[in-house]
Amino acid sequence: MFNFVAMQVENDVKQMEEQFQAKIDADIRIEPRDWMPEKYRKTLIRQMSQHAHSEVVGMLPEANWITRAPSLRRKVALLAKVQDEAGHGLYLYSACETLGADREETIDDLHSGKAKYSSIFNYPTITWADIGAIGWLVDGAAIVNQVALQKTSYGPYARAMVKICKEESFHQRQGYEIITVLANGTPAQKAMAQDALNRWWWPSLMMFGPTDADSPNTQQSMAWRIKRHTNDDLRQMFIDATVKQAEVAGLTIPDKDLKWNEERGHYDFGEIDWEEFYNVIKGNGPCNKQRIEARKKAKEEGMWVREAAMAYAEKQKTKTKAA
User: Fold this and answer.
1) CA distance 8 to 10
2) What is the CB neighbour count within 10 angstroms for residue 185?
């Protein structure tokens, strides 16, 4: 009897998995109340929470320059950008909650090192040109990835990406404008822009993750259409677009092996230092400890605000019930 029931349950699960995959293959969006494999749910929570953490941690290197931006216009634009990133994090944490994830637990996972965020945010912003490089390169790389995510199979994630991509396009234009103004300024300003490009180029390529051969999650994520393109495909798209932008700005990509391949219709490029990438991922980058400590401090010092808000909400709830 027990074996029969177990077999029936197994057959039911198999049938639901087949129906689920059929929806995926037909490009029908998966919504929060739809049945989904547990592994699909966990994969999405991992990816979306990592994305949310990256948006929030990504505020830190740029917020460092708000008070030091060279003009009021630059300060206002940078302040607006940092505010946007906070909003992106909130959208994505909310999307995680649609899958039953607890927001506080996901944030605690970040603080404990269990959860990751984009490796790019573990590098310091040394000069004003770095803010331009982040907007141009880092947000440019993010757009390449996030435009594809507008077609991801999970509805709340895809819809969040629509608004996020619109704002990221502003961020990319802002950064590129900073870089081009510097590149067309004094020799010292152009040298500053080139130095920022030299330092941010390779970490930006690492943002797309390891090569397809070394990416353990890519194959399944592609089958579920959580991802629409592989890491290597996205990286190639970014390089092809950005090389031309560098040429317009009058800057040189720091890659002696970079050249156009007529047969492939793409740029060939040099070997990425994957040892550096994995070292940063493990927590040994220039700013890993600094970034996590800043997020822990923000949570601890902001605790009273959250407690006050919860107390006020409970008070209003009690009043409504009494009325």
Assistant:
1) 5
2) 13
Using the structure block, give the residue that is written with the tokens 């510097």: 182
Instruction: Give the model confidence (pLDDT) of 109-138 as tens digits.
Output: 999 999 999 999 999 999 999 999 999 999
Tokens of 247: 């040429």
pLDDT band at 185, cuts 50/70/90? very high
Q: Distance between CA 246 and CA 193 in Å, rounded? A: 11
Instruction: Determine the Cα–Cα distance for residues 177 and 165; give it in Å rounded to an integer.
Output: 18
Cα separation, 144 vs 242, in Å, equals 11
User: Element (H or E) spanning 306, and its range?
Assistant: helix 303-322
Cβ atoms within 10 A of the Cβ of 8, count?
Answer: 10
The pTM of the whole model exceeds 0.85: yes
Structure tokens at 148: 């594809």
4 has a pLDDT exceeding 70:
no
Number of Cβ atoms within 10 Å of the Cβ of 59? 21
CA-nearest of 266, 140, 265, 253 to 199 is: 253
Integer Cα distance of 134 and 200 in angstroms: 8
> In the numeric block, which tokens belong to residue 317?
């709830």
Q: Which residue has tokens 């991802």?
A: 227
Q: Is 257 in a helix, a strand, or coil?
A: coil
In the predicted model, is pLDDT for residue 3 greater than 80? no
What one-letter code names the amino acid at 257? Answer: D
Q: Are strands 259-261 and 266-268 parallel, antiparallel or unpaired?
A: antiparallel
Tell me the C-alpha distance between 139 and 165, whole Å.
10
Q: Cα separation of 152 and 185, whole Å?
A: 42
Give tens-digit pLDDT for 5-26: 556 656 778 899 999 999 999 9
User: In degrees rounded to 5, what are phi and psi of residue 253?
Assistant: -65, 130
Tokens of 231: 């890491």
Q: Note whether 270 and 258 are within 8 A (CB).
A: yes
As a whole number of angstroms, the distance between CA 182 and CA 151 comes to 36
